[in-house]
Amino acid sequence: MSDYEVSTVHDSAVDLDGAVALLSTAQTVTVLCHVQPDADTLGSGLALGLALERRGIPVQVAFAAPDEVPLSMRGLPGTHLVTAADAVRDEVDLLVAVDCGTAGRLGELRTRLGGARTSLVIDHHRSNTRFGTHNLIDADAEATAAVLADIFDAWGVEIDADIAHCLFAGLATDTGSFRWVRAGTHTLAERLLATGIDGANITRTLLDTHPFGWLPMLSSVLASATLVPEAASNSGLVYALVRRTDSAHLGAEEIESVIDIVRTTVEAEVAAVFKEVGPQEWTVSLRSKRDVDVSLVATTLGGGGHRFASGYTAHGDSEEIVAALCAALG
Ligand SMILES: [Mn+2]
């Protein structure tokens, strides 16, 4: 075996052209988004699905839970490609996971990895475990949607209004409405908007639309907010608890919005929202501002994410889970 063969066997990283080679030669494709999909995973998944469909490649787009496309994302083009989780084919030529940092983020659908001849992970999470046979991870990208735009350019796929709508949804939400941006972010946004999409309506639908019940939920949850100044080496932690009694009848999107209010607290470098999902079980969102790498904190606690935004699952009562986070923060 030559040195070249050794290196290719062990290196699962692919560049844009490598990803295009896989996508353009696939006979059938399954595109998987992460559980409790946000607009980046679903927008990326639908954009890719539309591109494949136009090239005549049979494609399913799916996520393990919930059962339906979240309300705020039902206006995205390409939702006709969304397939119920139990109807996702067991065997496929190419499986693509978009915006998933670990195989666990696929939920029950991670079982489909075994039936795929090849799997391609497309993502921007720093902590990505590279669980595909091929992995295109751009940790500098603002959103997985931005990685998809690069793939489409390398592939020669025209970014028309429908694909642009899907990509804009991911870019706008993962950048917090273009607050967390870098050189090039607005250039991509301008290119997408120039296709004629209604950017204001897309962001309002995704980020600024809630049922009335959101307001009393916020009132109750924010009343529980607690500041721990000595946490994280005295740089401070602020946290709030979303109990199931607070969030009954509300969608995941309403609950996910809480962290964006809590994290504005000036006295705390780190913000956390503990969301009760079952008895003694919580999903936890973490945010930091500048100094603390919460992807490392989340990884320590069994999760993952980005430097300034991450998450994990916690078990125990409220005091135990707060104590475990404080211990991990140091
Ligand atoms: Mn993302």
TrEMBL record:
<dbReference type="InterPro" id="IPR003156">
    <property type="entry name" value="DHHA1_dom"/>
</dbReference>
<keyword id="KW-0378">Hydrolase</keyword>
<feature type="domain" description="DDH">
    <location>
        <begin position="29"/>
        <end position="170"/>
    </location>
</feature>
<protein>
    <submittedName>
        <fullName>Bifunctional oligoribonuclease/PAP phosphatase NrnA</fullName>
        <ecNumber>3.1.3.7</ecNumber>
    </submittedName>
</protein>
<dbReference type="InterPro" id="IPR038763">
    <property type="entry name" value="DHH_sf"/>
</dbReference>
<dbReference type="Pfam" id="PF01368">
    <property type="entry name" value="DHH"/>
</dbReference>
<dbReference type="GO" id="GO:0008441">
    <property type="term" value="F:3'(2'),5'-bisphosphate nucleotidase activity"/>
</dbReference>
<dbReference type="InterPro" id="IPR051319">
    <property type="entry name" value="Oligoribo/pAp-PDE_c-di-AMP_PDE"/>
</dbReference>
<feature type="domain" description="DHHA1">
    <location>
        <begin position="249"/>
        <end position="325"/>
    </location>
</feature>
<dbReference type="InterPro" id="IPR001667">
    <property type="entry name" value="DDH_dom"/>
</dbReference>
<dbReference type="Pfam" id="PF02272">
    <property type="entry name" value="DHHA1"/>
</dbReference>
